[in-house]
Structure formats: structure tokens, C-alpha cells
Amino acid sequence: MRKLYDWTLRMADHHNALWVLALVSFAEASFFPIPPDLLMIPMIIARPSRAWLIAGVAMAASVLGGLLGYAIGALAYETLGEPILMAMGKGEAMEAFNDRFVDAGFWAVLGAGITPFPYKVITIMAGWTGMSLVTFMITSVIARGLRFFIVAGLLWHFGAPIRGFIEKRLGLVLTLFFIALLGGFLLIRYL
């Protein structure tokens, strides 16, 4: 895993870094273990003027990769999806998770797309449970857009000093943001 992590960081300086970012973002949404943020951070610090382009590439490729995850869940769960989830230690809980996922669909995709929860688990589950493809796509664009554009915005505005914060605490901040967002919707609905 360390070699894969080191390779990802080395690719941030490569002349084809945007293509590598697109590939990593695409793959991470369905099977790859390394998040695209690890490429985005050094890329944006090196060239802040490209922050929005970098975030846009990561978002678009991640959403397209989410379609592959969806297809794996819908068309090849037993042969591909289940082994991927088992390798991540998520396979045993899939049956129980299935019932909760069907009820939470939109929120599950939004939460996984924003927070550090492995997005690939949700993309595969969305296909496996037969979630509406339209709902899945809209939610994926919102979630992945929020995640990558928040990172880009922080780096564009604060530069290198925010790097340590993003690498160590952004997952927590985005998780708290998602909880607050969900809480706000629940308040509006029940008040």
C-alpha cells in the first residue's frame, strides 16, 4: 500500500498529471484504494491558478468512475462487487446494510461522496440495490463536486499552509458538514 501511495504522490509532478488525476479519480470510485485528494493537493499547491480545473477533472472522472461502480453492483455483484467489498472488510455487513441503504439512498451517496467513507462501497451498493440511476448521478455530482471543490477552494485561498489541515482533518470537517446538512434538512422537514 505504501508503494501505491508513493506512486500517487510522484504522479502529481508528472507532465500528464491531469490525466493521472482523472484515472485515479475514476478508479477510486469503483475499486482503487487511494483517494484522488492525494494528487489534487500537491497539484493545486504547485499551480493554484488551475485549482478549479483540477477539481473539475477530479469530479467528472469520479462521477464517471461511479458509473462503473454502479455497473459492477448491478451487473456483476457476485463476481466483482462482492470480492471488492470483502477485500475492504465490508462484505459481511452487506445484507444488513442493504436494507438501510435502500431507505437512505440519496443520503448514503451524498454522505459517502463527501466524507472519507469509501465512495466505491456506495457506488457498488447503489447498483446492487437498484437505486435510480438518475438519483445516483445527481447525488454523485453534488457530493463529489462539494468534496473536490472545497479542497480546491481551501488550497487556492490559503495555499500550502492549509495542506496539513486538509490531509489530517478534512475528512472530519466534511463529515461534520454532512451531519449538519442532514440535521438541517431534518429540522426543516419536522418543524
Automatic annotation (TrEMBL):
The keyword Endoplasmic reticulum is assigned to this record: no
Keywords for the protein's UniProt record, in alphabetical order: Membrane, Transmembrane, Transmembrane helix
InterPro entries: DedA_domain, VTT_dom
Entry keyword Plastid: no
Residue span, VTT domain: 50-154
Gene Ontology CC annotations of this record: plasma membrane
Transmembrane segments: 53-80, 101-119, 131-158, 170-190
Name listed for the protein in its UniProt record: DedA family protein
Lineage per the UniProt record: Bacteria, Pseudomonadati, Pseudomonadota, Alphaproteobacteria, Rhodobacterales
